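EI: anyone free to look at a 140-residue chain?
SC: sure, send it
EI:
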Amino acid sequence: MAPLLALPGGVRAELESLVQAGYPCETCGLLLGDRSDGCCRVASQRPARNLNRERARDRFEVDPEDYLGAENAAAAAGLAIVGVWHSHPDHPARPSATDLEMAWPGWSYLILSVGSGGVAELRSWRLAGDRFVEEEVRHA
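SC: here you go
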């Protein structure tokens, strides 16, 4: 069975709004939810500040304070951090070599391709050994 990411429409709308507002820089954040039977169920998202100011157009670094805030919010809701979301301004929603270097096993990596005209695509990926495999994104 292929990996699956269940994404509520409201969360998707929040993400699209955030990446459009952050364009032309990369925006990022964390996905909160649960994972079972190969399915990642997203309940909510938490935006994070991108600390990579030198290469903000093509790199992101999640602020550790925002990560801790997301971890605390997830625990309070009986959830866990299940992944990261970030934008690729003016580039496809496919993981870069940098994304692969920074990836953690078991997490989902939701990427939104955004340009001056808005969000072009949204795709999710999961690390499988030394490469990414695409997850099916299903609206929950």
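EI: The mean pLDDT is 95.
SC: 👍
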